[in-house]
UniProtKB/TrEMBL annotation:
SMART domains, A to Z: HTH_XRE
InterPro entries registered for this protein in UniProt: Cro/C1-type_HTH (IPR001387), Lambda_DNA-bd_dom_sf (IPR010982), TransReg_Diox_bact_type (IPR050807)
Composition skew (Polar residues), residue ranges: 10-19
Protein name: HTH cro/C1-type domain-containing protein
Keywords: DNA-binding
Region Disordered: start-end pairs: 1-21
Domain HTH cro/C1-type: 22-82
GO molecular function, one term: DNA-binding transcription factor activity
Lineage of origin: Bacteria, Bacillati, Actinomycetota, Actinomycetes, Pseudonocardiales
Record PROSITE patterns: HTH_CROC1
Record organism: Amycolatopsis coloradensis
Amino acid sequence: MADNADNLPQAESGNSNMGTRIRRYRQERNLSLNQLAESTGVSKGYLSALENEQTSTTKSRRPSAETLYSIAKALGVTMSDLLGRKLLATAITSPPPESLQKFAEADNLPQADIEMLNAIQFRGEHPKTIERWRYIYTAIRVSESMDNH
């Protein structure tokens, strides 16, 4: 996943807090507190308290990782986005499969694209053929224009 920390919504007063970010992401997606509560399984009251920073003084009311994950998933963002932190990149420990290496060499792919493709799995497996890698890569490249609309 891309590092979205630089694209985080910022409060008008400067550095925004988690509650402000949750509210901003929710509003950008035209979701009510009720809708977010239904999709996350988190109570509307607790979400409201988070958005209004009524939990910052009480440690026991700080959201758990599970709660943050549910909120992030429902909003289509990362937990890092909600926390206002840069996403920590995980190193890919396994080398790319031979079919990906051959495709990357044939099409002269940049290292970043090879690493991105190496992270792709479908039902727990990498694509097996150069043609399938090319199809996936082309689909990703073609879909880039969708981000501009």
